[in-house]
Amino acid sequence: MIKVSVVGAKGRMGSHVVDAVNGANDMELALTLDAGDDLTLITPDNTDVVVEFTVPSVSLGNVLALIAQGVDVVVGTTGWNDEKLAQVRQAIAEGPKPETQKVFIAPNFAISAVLADYFAAKAAKYFESAEVIELHHPTKVDAPSGTAIHTAQAIGAARKAAGLGDMPDATETDGGSRGQVIDGVHVHAVRLRGLNAHEEILLGNAGEQLTIRADSFDRGSFMPGVLLATRKLATDAPAGLTIGLDQFLDL
């Protein structure tokens, strides 16, 4: 049995993780911690894998503390950037088990979103233009979403590898309406009551358009990916920092 502790257990996502772990026949729930609880309660003696689902403002500190405890961590909180990731890598190198420590961070745990991201990167080199639209509920605290950032980075890398130049865009002044530019890709964020988590990738050539869309209508859609990542960290995932659920899928 994989002993799983959940940090952020009372949150919107964390509560779903608790239910998913309780419903898995190869896992048992160890500890459930939330804001203000002592993370040093989580140790390798009582926990195989920690699932951390909190908010961007505290997630880095939580992950660094858990690394210091010597436990492996699956991170679902978004809001990561290169600077924060560098701190995680440094903490692993300086932690109690640098040769075996595992940390996994996923921009998105929905299989549909991971595949959409993968397909977009494969298609990007064939199209002159590409833009990303992400749509979420209005209580989401970060924008654009980590998934959209990851998608734009993947598109940008694919275009660069293919030797493509800048995308056509005659806009002179936009007042911010053209969205954030990430690796040359415009990313637009929508926050609307009634939505959950959605992403649309638009790719265009003269006379044609490809639309790739992923929709998560319920937070339960993320749980198969969370359990997959947890199982991988408990078994054969590589040591160090791994980013993206695509690393654990046979793509």
Automatic annotation (TrEMBL):
The active site is at H136 (proton donor/acceptor), K140 (proton donor). It is an enzyme of class 1 (oxidoreductase). Gene3D superfamilies: Dihydrodipicolinate Reductase, domain 2, NAD(P)-binding Rossmann-like Domain. It holds the Pfam family DapB_N. NAD(+) binds at G8, A9, K10, G11, R12, M13, D37, G76, T77, T78, A106, P107, N108, F109. GO terms for biological process: diaminopimelate biosynthetic process; lysine biosynthetic process via diaminopimelate. It is found in: Cytoplasm. One of its GO terms (cellular component) is cytosol. Homotetramer. Catalyzes the conversion of 4-hydroxy-tetrahydrodipicolinate (HTPA) to tetrahydrodipicolinate. This is 4-hydroxy-tetrahydrodipicolinate reductase. It comes from Bifidobacterium oedipodis.
